[in-house]
């Protein structure tokens, strides 16, 4: 198989040369009661973004979903998205890419000084549970690794394009190790996130279920919500789409 590789990981790893979506496979595994499994694929033919968007996932990328059952409330689940973006940005930086994080779920490479960027990776966190307890969480991480940028949407970039190909085995291992560390100390991700954030200090437009918000992104909270300073005071946004505006 194209990507079947042995690695020392803190979880068990299931490999696929080609799959619909690693997040769908993680859901299937969740239904069997499994936990601490990473599903990794060379190619996805039905990759998903947030809100039913399609995610391009040709051969050569790092398409990974980690299924785990942390003892947390759903309110803290967004911290897993931040943890995945920090781990991904750090691994990409070690590969020589100027990776930064755009709230909430994008790892990007800045273009110029205006908060513009190209997208290198995206995170899709899905979960099931009750009000007070997460039953399982599937953290989906899609990294444009050893792929020609021409094979992806125009707004995308790849590790190949920015710095040359990476050893995907080591990259995946690195991601899983860092995610395992946050498992025992989830809050420690917040300061790490701040250091890599491209969004903080930007003028932003945030689309959230209750409507649009324009202001300056000034911080994130302990649970990973974005703090936006508007003419009417500060507002925190737990989830939404965020666009960087020109100053
Ligand atoms: C995301 O959604 O960024 C989450 C992507 C998560 C992908 C991983 S791969 C492993 C796991 N299995 C899955 O099926 N999914 C996860 P969102 O923020 O909604 O961004 C989606 C948008 O990014 C699309 O509408 C496109 O505009 C753009 N896009 C699609 N493919 C891309 C790519 N490979 N690189 C950069 N941008 C892309």
TrEMBL record:
Keywords: ATP-binding, Ligase, Nucleotide-binding. GO terms for cellular component: cytoplasm. The keyword Ligase applies. Residues 1-187 form the BPL/LPL catalytic domain. The keyword Acetylation does not apply. GO terms for molecular function: ATP binding; biotin--[biotin carboxyl-carrier protein] ligase activity. GO terms for biological process: regulation of DNA-templated transcription. This is Biotin--[acetyl-CoA-carboxylase] ligase. The lineage of its organism: Archaea, Methanobacteriati, Methanobacteriota, Stenosarchaea group, Halobacteria.
